[in-house]
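Would you kindly consider the sequence and fold I have copied below?
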Amino acid sequence: MGIVFKDADVQPTLGEFTERTEDSAMRLIHSLEVSYFRSLYKQTISDIEDLTIFFGRNDSGKSNYLRALNLFFNGETNPGIPFKFAMDLCHARRHEADKLTNAKKFVAVKVIFNVPSQWKKSLGASFYVRKLWSITTGEQFSQTSSISDPSRLKYLTRFLNNIHFHYVPAIKDRRIFEQLLSRLYSVLSADAEFVKSLDGFAKEVQVRTSTLTNDLAALIGLASTISPPTDLRDLFRSLDFETRTNPDDADGYSLTLQRGDGVQVRHIPAILKFLADSEQSAPFHVWGFEEPENSLELASAIAEAEYFKKLAHSKNIQIFATSHSPAFFNSAGGGTKRFFVSRAIRGELASPTSEAHVVEDSTVPSELMGELPHLALISPLLKDADAKMKELAAEIDSLRAEIADSSQPVLFVEGVTDKLVFQKAWDVLIGGKIPFKIESCDGTSKMKTLAARGTALGLLAPGRHLLCLVDNDYEGRELYVNSRLDGGGKWVLNKENGTHWCRLQPTNEFEDVMRKVGIQEKRWPFVIEACFSAAIREAAVAAGAYALSRYPFDELTVDTSSFKKVLPLLSTADFSTLVYLCAPDATKKEAFAEWICGQADGDASVMEPLKGILEGARDVISAKSP
């Protein structure tokens, strides 16, 4: 259904909408209709989801949707600010009504509710409640509902009393925490054990002040004892959160006096969640949260957006929010609905009004591109970057598990067969105990993690040598770009993260073929199988342990110039040339690794192309110059 704009006053009707499906989320409010409130002229927001987010420029009026809900549930616009008809009537409507004889000045907020299963017997599947403030009644409202049966009205009142609307403004100061702590007291005071503990506190105070009590009795003849107030809301408002970076830290810090705004802000949804889960008298909680990303750096804003989405899937929470952040803009789909709010003079109205338009998951409206281009353009980039960061974190966790059981240096190679071949090469060429553990990365994805900038790897393996050996093909060269690695066979320190890198060193036979065919060096596809001569691999073919694929290496096909040179050779060249142009058959990689290791047992010289790399790795570990 989306957005419906109304040009004339009509009597409220329930209308048709799809009944909600029973899932884990509450999704209590289905639709919101607002008439003549502040910058909102007449608009309906329909098919509301678990998390509904309004985007727009400053002063676009996006917060007025949250204020309309606060007015409906709490009789206030901003927290602690009562409704004032003269101030809160839509200016456009005021000017319009002054000109038109029959036009009325009023403010109305109508909410259509999805009824939870436990209330359907009394209230049906859905109903609406409309509250109206007029020029004659001022701050007092009249209420109408689709439930008109007098016998059911008591259930309606009881149901509405079960809803608590929390409004969190954009500026989150000490007063917000005072209000939340006051609510916390209301929740705790209903707990018998908590009340009992206060009795113990009162008795202890009386014991400690018994001398004062006796002196007062002797002086004025009255028994006068100190006792705490029956309502401790004022005391709770003055409480604070003591925070520690680590639970074992000796000193704590005041949340509101010593912690930054960002840390304070991130406490608020957690406190609201605790209240929602603990407040038995109000089992349904709706939040109006302005700009939750305020005071948060980007990584924290991303985490907060994910947390809000998770909270909105709760059985007792529905969230309405405003935002400027690409982190929240990316919260699309899966129970989230986004609206773009713009403000302009429309039609014949004398003053600007606000309108909200649905932002579909797959499209960005032209208005958004025009008014908030940075949000529209940065959001998809941020989404991709966040996905890569999560992938990187997962790879780091995997790498941590692989090296946690050893204090040895680690040599990372691309594949399982590489590990097998290099272990055998050490045994037959150098001998003795290998001074490093060889680990397979199962391709280049984990290698990307090892090449990443920053200190993550230093934290992963502090004080340990991490060595990375890659093929001298396009993917391998792109992992860590350093001109000192050109040519292969040399170990180079990546100063960004402390890892050492080396590429396989092309053999003379391989280089002769590449130059003869005319392939540029940046397109050379030197993989571990190419370390072994054409004659050796031809013998492996005869033994059923090696085969060529039907296609050239990717480097030779994606480059037009290279492909033109290679294509004619596929049907005319002999094996000694094709073996360096066509990729090995992937199904034979393990068989070839086992076969070549068997050959090395009889003739160690077959592993000779790998000797310099292994000796260089040994020298790095022993702190000698490679």
